[in-house]
Design brief:
alpha/beta; D-Maltodextrin-Binding Protein, domain 2; 3 domains; six-stranded mixed β-sheet; five-stranded mixed β-sheet; 13 strands; 45% helix; 18% strand; elongated; DNA-binding; LysR family transcriptional regulator; WH-like_DNA-bd_sf; DNA-binding transcription factor activity; DNA binding
Length: 314
């Protein structure tokens, strides 16, 4: 019979949890002992103490090493959870003292994020992960990101997030500064249909919008696409060949154009993209660094929203 929780708490040590994790990783007492800086006899004694604490064997001893039984797999799994939570606690304490935040961002919102970050206290450490909305939401789910600028509409369960509309996204078509149509006063999709397009992969919001534009104009969608979610890859492709065009947010387009890296083509799109959202896990406590970044992101945006605008669930 498994002992009471109080009995386990009073007898189990954190170093024993590290040993359990190492045994799960290696299946060898010697290698596990080396990982947690114990002698082999010391590790053997610690394992015996662990199994005494739970009053049940956790491993089968074989000629191939130690193989966790069903109870052992359970103990190892929860040892990992406890270790991860302790690591998260430490990171949050570091964040409170010095400031740290992990933030995700989709390509179009990169300029919006960088503007906010430059206004932060220089003592705040920031990790930036650029990816698709789907990938960023999955990182929020597992606690890998504190927050993200993305869209919850791509999720089948948007209700599990807290989200705040930051701003609408306007789109623009960009190309090499030597593109043949760079000086054209007014373009249509037909003018660009034969050029090669750099696009998001299928089923992403920006890609769906572009496909809708072509469909509404009764033009076949371009073939031989280049698909990427990377700002840098998009820029490198456009700068390498004047025959490419790409659909990006107006913020990205203006940044490129301002630094004379690409030009903005005079094509007006009828469709409008979905707004950017500031997304966090619903009900999850926010670190000090996350709160600082959220304040920076919403400070200027708050001036653009009506006075009664408030934080709403997605």
């Amino acid at each position: 019979m498994i002992p009471s929780l109080n009995s386990i708490i009073s007898r189990l040590h954190l170093k024993q949890l590290r040993l359990l994790i190492a045994l799960g990783d290696h299946g060898s007492l010697l290698k596990a002992a080396q990982q947690v800086a114990l002698t082999q006899p010391g590790a053997s004694k610690a394992l015996q103490e662990i199994e005494t604490t739970f009053d049940t064997p956790l491993f089968n001893r074989t000629n191939r090493g130690l193989q966790p039984n069903e109870t052992g797999h359970c103990a190892i799994r929860y040892a990992r959870v406890i270790y991860t939570e302790l690591s998260n606690m430490r990171e949050e304490m570091v964040g409170i003292q010095g400031g740290r935040v992990s933030v995700g961002v989709i390509m179009g919102a990169v300029p919006l994020l960088t503007d906010a970050i430059t206004a932060l206290n220089p003592d705040l450490s920031v990790e930036i992960v650029e990816d698709t909305s789907a990938a960023l939401l999955s990182l929020i789910d597992v606690g890998r990101l504190d927050l993200a600028i993305c869209r919850t509409t791509i999720s089948q369960t948007p209700q599990i997030y807290d989200s705040l509309k930051l701003q609408d996204e306007t789109l623009a078509v960009v190309a090499n500064v030597q593109h043949p149509l760079r000086r054209a006063k007014r373009l249509t999709l037909q003018d660009l249909a034969e050029y090669r397009w750099v696009v998001y992969r299928a089923n992403m919001p920006m890609r769906l919008l572009l496909e809708r534009e072509f469909r509404d104009a009764e033009i076949s969608f371009p073939r031989h696409l280049l698909e990427t979610t990377s700002v840098f890859a998009t820029l490198a492709i456009l700068r390498s060949n004047p025959s490419f065009v790409a659909l990006v947010s107006i913020d990205v387009a203006q940044f490129f154009a301002r630094h004379e890296m690409t030009c903005i083509l005079s094509l007006d799109l009828a469709s409008r993209s979905e707004p950017y959202e500031l997304v966090t896990r619903k009900g999850a406590p926010l670190s000090h660094g996350a709160r600082l970044l959220m304040e920076a992101l919403t400070r200027d945006q708050g001036k653009k929203r009506p006075p009664n605008a408030s934080r709403q669930p997605a």
